[in-house]
Amino acid sequence: MTKGQLRRARAPEDKTERRAVILRAAEALLRRDPSAGFSVGEIARRAGLAKGTVYLYFGSREEMLIAVHDAQMDELFNTLERALSKPKVGAGTVARAVLAFLRHRPEFFRLSTSCHGALEDSVSADVARRHRELVATRLTGIGHRIETLHPGMRPSEGATLLKNSYALMLGLWQLVASPLRVTGAAPGEQEPAALRINFEAQLGVALKDLWNAAVRRGEGRLA
Amino acid sequence: MTKGQLRRARAPEDKTERRAVILRAAEALLRRDPSAGFSVGEIARRAGLAKGTVYLYFGSREEMLIAVHDAQMDELFNTLERALSKPKVGAGTVARAVLAFLRHRPEFFRLSTSCHGALEDSVSADVARRHRELVATRLTGIGHRIETLHPGMRPSEGATLLKNSYALMLGLWQLVASPLRVTGAAPGEQEPAALRINFEAQLGVALKDLWNAAVRRGEGRLA
Amino acid sequence: MTKGQLRRARAPEDKTERRAVILRAAEALLRRDPSAGFSVGEIARRAGLAKGTVYLYFGSREEMLIAVHDAQMDELFNTLERALSKPKVGAGTVARAVLAFLRHRPEFFRLSTSCHGALEDSVSADVARRHRELVATRLTGIGHRIETLHPGMRPSEGATLLKNSYALMLGLWQLVASPLRVTGAAPGEQEPAALRINFEAQLGVALKDLWNAAVRRGEGRLA
Amino acid sequence: MTKGQLRRARAPEDKTERRAVILRAAEALLRRDPSAGFSVGEIARRAGLAKGTVYLYFGSREEMLIAVHDAQMDELFNTLERALSKPKVGAGTVARAVLAFLRHRPEFFRLSTSCHGALEDSVSADVARRHRELVATRLTGIGHRIETLHPGMRPSEGATLLKNSYALMLGLWQLVASPLRVTGAAPGEQEPAALRINFEAQLGVALKDLWNAAVRRGEGRLA
DNA sequence: AATGAATGAGCATTCATTCAT
DNA sequence: CATGAATGAATGCTCATTCAT
User: Which fold has domain B60-177+192-222?
Assistant: First the structure.
C-alpha cells in the first residue's frame, strides 16, 4: 500500500535531482518555520518523500544540514564574486550584495550555527573535511581576487579580510538581528535600546571599517 | 534512599553558594566534555546533587544555561572594564584582555551559541528580558567609558563598537577557532590552510581595525 | 532563617486545630482550582505551613485526602439527618437537602473519586478500615431513622436505600455534571443533547423513584 | 538494537490489528494489576512493542485510555441492545446482561473513572468531543428502543433511564464493589456489614426500581 | 529504489517523602 | 514542633535511524 511514491530515480541525474529536492525542502523548512525544529520527518514530508528515502541520499540528518549550508555558502560566494567583478568595487558594494543575499536567505545564519554544532560532534571526519575544503577553496579564490584589486595587499590578506567580514556578520546576526523576532515579544515590549539596532546599517559601517583598514594597509606598503 | 547529601543550604548565603555550585558544575561540563550534551542529569551528577535539587534553584534547563552565560558575560565585561581603566588603552590592550579571558573560558562562545537558541524558543519572556537587560546595561556602561576616552565619539558609538567587537569574536570563533579540536581529527590530518589561522592573531588585527576606525571617526569630528 | 512559623501547637487542642487548618486548606484547594493537581506542596502553602509539617499530622497525602473526604461525608450525613427530622419527609425533601449541600461543596464527588482510588492502593489497611467504619456507622444510623419513618421497611433497607441514593448521585455526577466545565469548551461548542441534562432535575426525579419504590415495598408488606 | 520486532503493520487491516493489540494490552494491564499504574512503558512492554510504537497509534497516554474505554462502552451498549431484543424484556433481563458484562470486564468502572479525570484536563478538545458523541449516539439509540418497548414513554425518557442506570452502577461500584479486593485485606478482616453487600443483588433491585418507575410513569400517561 | 513501521535510547520534569537543622 | 532543602524514582514523550516489505 505504497502511497504517491515519486517516480524512482534511476539515472544519475535523477538522483542528483532527488537530492536537490530534499535540500530545497530542508531549506524551505528552515526559512519558513523558525520554531518547528527541523526534524528529518518534517523535511521528508515537505519533500514528498518517506523518511527512509532521505537516508538513501544523506548519511544522517547532520550531513543533510551541512549540504544545505554548503549550497547556501556557495551562493553567497557567487554573489560575492559577482559583486567583485563590478567596476569601482568597495566595501559598500560588497556590503550591499551580501545584505541582498541575506534578505533572500534569512535562515542562512541560523543554519550556519546549527552546522557548526554538527561539525563538532555528530559528523564523520570525512564530511567535515569536505565541508572545510569547500569553504577554504572559495575563500582563497575570492581572496585572490580581492588581493588583485588592491595591489598592496599581501597573499592571504584577501582571504583574511573575507573571514573577518563573515565573522562580523555572523556574530552580529546572533547578537542582535535574530532576537528581534523573539519569544512572542509581549506587544508594547521593547528590546533594550542598546540592543535595538539596525542590523543592516551597523553591518554596513563595520564592514567598511574592516575593508578600508585592509585596503589602506596595502596602500601604505605601496607608498 | 538518601545518598551523600550535601549539607543543606538554609541561610541565603548557603543558597547562593549552592546555586553557584550548580553553575560551576555546568560550566565545567561545558568546558570539559564538548560532546556529552549538557543534560540536567549530568550537571546534577557533577554538582554532587540530585536532579530534582537543580530544579530548586533553576526553573528549567535553559534558565540554568542562561545563568551560566550571564555570569560569564559579566566576567567578560569586568575584564573589559579593567582593561579600559589602564593608562594608554588601545585596541591592543582590549584584545589582549579578551583573549586572556577566552583562554580561561574556552567554552564561552559555545555557550553563547546555545543560549541564543534557547532564548529563541524555550525560555520564558521574563528570563529572556532579564538577560537582554543585563547585556544592554553593561554594553551601555562600558560604551560610555569608551566614549569618554575618545572625546570625538558620539553617544552610543562606544556601545556600537563593543557590539561589533563582540560579534567579530563570536563569528570568528565559530568560523575557525572551534573546528581545530574536531572529531578526533585523524592524526596527520590538517585543516585547509585557508582556515588554519591563528585565531588570536587574526582577532587582534581585526579588533584593532574596528577600534581605530571608530576612534579616527571621532577625531575627525574634533578637528 | 525560619519564616513566619506559626505558633507551635503544643496543647492537644492546638494540634487538632492545626490539623483542621490543613484540612481546610486542602478543601479550599480542591474547590477553587479544579486543574492544579492537589499536591502536598500546594496544600501546605495554602495552609501557611511547610511541607514537612503536613506530614506531622498526616501519614501521607492520601490519608489527608481521606480525612477531608471523611469530614465532608460527615457533613453530608448531618445534612441528611436534619432533613429527616422534618415533618412530612419524602424523597423531595431529601433531594433538596442534598442538592443544597452539593452546591456548597462542588468538589465533593471529585474528592470522593480520588479517595476511592487512594483506598485501592496507597493507603494503610488501618486508615482504610477506619474510613469504612465511619461510613458504615453513619449509614446504619440514618438507615434506621428511615426505617422508623416507614414502618414496613425491613432492617437494613434504609441503609440500602441510602447507598443506592449515594451511588446514583455519584455516578450521575461523573456521567454528566462535571463534563460541563470541560476543556475550554470552544465557545459555541455544545455538549451532545443526550448528555446535556440538568443534573439537579434528573437527580431529583431518580431519587424519588428509588425512594418511592422502597417506601411502597414497605407499605406493601404492611397491607 | 532491534529486538523481537513484530511483523510490520503495513496494510490498513494490520494497523487496525496493531492498534487493537495495544488496546488489549492496556485492557489486560488494567484488569490484572490494579496497583501497577498503567504507564505507557508497561503497556508497550505487554504489547510486545517499543514505547515509541505506541505513539504511532495513539497521540497520548490519555487518548489510549479513552480508546479502551470507548471500546468497552461499545461492548456494553451492544450487550444492552442484545438484551433489549429479547422477548419480554424487563429490568431483570437488562440487569442480568449488564452484570454478566461486568463479570468479564471487572476493570470497566475503574477505567471509566480514570477517563473521567483525563477528559477533564489532559485531553484535546477534539478527542473529548469524539468520546462524548459516541456515548451520546449510543445512549440515544438505545433510549429510543426502550421508548418503543414502552409506548407511554416520552422521547428522551429512555435515554434518561439509561443514564440513571449507568450512574447507579458506577456509583454503586465505587461505593461498595471495588473495596472488596482492597489492600491485601488482612486475613480475617471483614468489611463492615453495612458495606459488605452483594453488589449484584443490590444493583439488580435498584435497577428494577428505576426501570419500573419509568415504565409505570409511561403507562400512567396511556391510561 | 522507496517506503514507513518499528525502535529505544535519551531527556526534562514532577512530586511525595525524608531528615538535617 | 516546625521547617524546607534534598532526594530520586517515575514517566510521558521525541526523533534519528534502521530494515522488512
Answer: Tetracycline Repressor; domain 2 (1.10.357)
With CA atoms as reference, report the closest residue to B27 among B94, B130, B107.
B107
Q: What is the DSSP letter of A123?
A: S
Q: Which residues in chain A are classed under CATH 1.10.357.10?
A: 60-177+192-222
| CA separation for the pair A161, B172 (Å, rounded) | 11
User: If pLDDT is split at 50, 70 and 90, which confidence band does B46 have?
Assistant: very high
Rounded distance between C-alpha atoms, residue D136 and residue D134, angstroms: 5
Which positions 93-122 of C are in contact with D (Cβ < 8 Å)? 112-113, 116-117, 119-121
Low-confidence ranges of chain C (pLDDT < 70): 1-7, 9, 34-35, 177-197
Other beta carbons less than 10 A from residue B79's beta carbon: 18
Res. B181: pLDDT tops 60: no
> Rounded to an integer, what distance in angstroms lies between the CA atom of residue A71 and that of residue D51?
38
Distance of CA A177 to the CA centre of its chain: 15
Q: What are the DSSP calls for C43-68, one per residue? A: HHHHHTS-HHHHHHH-SSHHHHHHHH
Select from A206, A202, A42, A31 the least CA-distant residue to A108.
A31
Distance to chain A for D10, nearest Cα, Å: 7
Instruction: Give CA–CA dist C115/C68, Å, rounded.
Output: 9
- Alpha-helical (H) ranges within chain B are 12-32, 40-47, 51-57, 61-85, 91-104, 108-120, 125-149, 157-172, 199-222
Q: Is B184 in contact with A129 (Cβ distance < 8 A)? A: no
CB D73 within 8 A of CB D134: yes
User: D interface mutation test: which of C110, C166, C209 has the most D CBs within 10 A?
Assistant: C209
Cite the residue boundaries of each domain of chain A with CATH code 1.10.10.
1-58
- According to CATH, the topology of domain B1-58 is Arc Repressor Mutant, subunit A (1.10.10)
Positions 45-84 in B, CB within 7 angstroms of strand E = 51-52, 55, 60-62
* Hits for CB < 7 Å against strand E across C residues 100-129: 122
C222 close contact with B: CB closer than 8 A = no
Read off the pTM. 0.89
C144-157 per-position pLDDT tens digit: 999 999 989 998 89
C-alpha distance across the termini of chain D, in Å: 75
CA distance C2 to chain B (A): 9
In contact, C103 and C164? CB cutoff 8 Å: no
Which helix (H) or strand (E) segment holds residue D174: the answer is: none
Q: Are C152 and C217 in contact (CB under 8 A)?
A: yes
